[in-house]
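[Automated response] Your request has been received and processed.

Submitted sequence:
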Amino acid sequence: MKVSVVSRPGVNYPSADDYFSPHERYPEYAHDHVARSENPVYEMVRQTFAQAGLDEEHYGQGNWNPLGEFIDAGNSVFVLCNFVCHRRVGESNEDFQSKCTHASVIRAILDYVLIAVGGGGKVTFGNAALQGCQWERVLQETGSSALLQFYSRAGAPVQARDLRLFVVESDLMGRSVRKEVRDSSHAAEVDLESDSLLRAHYDGGPEPHYRVLDYDPRRTERCHSRESHRYLVHKAVLESDVVLSVPKLKTHQKVGVTLGLKGFVGTVGHKDCLAHHRLGGARTGGDEYPGGNIIRHLASRLHDWVYSRDSSGASNTWRVLDRSLRRAIGRMGGIPSGGWSGNDTAWRMSLDLGRIVHNADAEGLMRESPQRRHLCFIDGIRGGEGEGPLSPKAVDSGVVVFSDDVALADRVACRLMGLDPSSIPLVHQAFRLDKWPITRAGLSPHPVAMNGERITEAEILPVLSRPFLMPRGWRQPAKPSR
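Generated structure:
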């Protein structure tokens, strides 16, 4: 297992004017176009691969193929980005860049993926963003439209793919303005049955009622029961030979951090199958918010009722009321839906999906052995802290991380964020899976190549010289996981 980290404080993303090409014609570079101004991001991506010792024999030569160790000629590769949502009203460009994968990182990675797959391969990038995300806008605002234009002119087999099979765009008031239901045959249903990590919630205590914000709760509950836990994963991912995750380095209200492991939710076509939290407060057996609160209870019941109705006509009035109430609760310091350290649901759902991405075949059947290879490259050029994943504040973290083990990449990234990985159940529990494990690493510290030196995880210092500011609901000791 390899982990390679390159840190350059103060580095910025290049503009799209030069299609994010390198400013230097490297020996292995396969295109004619070279940037007129410096592109440090491309150089950092290249350095992580070299520093990891990938295809060391041919480094510095025209036939250097660093990803050839993991990607075979002719393979289908899905590059799983973090395109959570388009830039929102009042959001600075820096804050937007802290929540969405930047195309300059994607471009450098794709160039090396294309070397590995050769002329007969297939390369796709994208994910399933929020149901209200305007896909063309997020491609434009991340710089991915320029990237696609470049590859189209070069005749390279690269395409972007929106994995959502249900889209509802809303206005600022919460009213539904456009609804699109796409072909469900593009999703494979994967049932983990009693092997789901959610099964632990049925061992004593009240029956759990799983919820995901802004979806019909009846559909969510039909996906999860004591003996059945079904996820609808897009076939574009399950039909690939290699998945290469390119998440952001940012915090997350529900699971603490948004890195490679949480990014698995981007493979799901119908998001109403996702269990983000359990209905109700901790006092009544839920994990939607701490303790118990009658106002929160009523607000949750209103939300259920609104999203059990049709999404058009008079129901828009109720949607506006629902959103206004939730915003008011937030302004008063209330914890958003499941957005706290006591959420014992979202990390289990995320690891369920990680096991699916590793072990489900193209038809959605779970197999004993991994069905595809998985790599991870974390974009931390500009990181996000605070109320991620939707409203993080930008920090100039200036770091990128590569690993051939997604859980190990996340554990190292936690250290770079100044966080203790053992306090983040999503990361800590990834190393404790017995059936369908998603990592080959153990709990002991692993060697890391960083800025030309070989160190251990324990020697990693925070890139900001301080910890990332956690979401409001995590500014307290994390609750132990069952």
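Summary generated for your ticket: The longest strand covers residues 373-387. The mean pLDDT is 93.
If you did not submit this request, please reply to this message.
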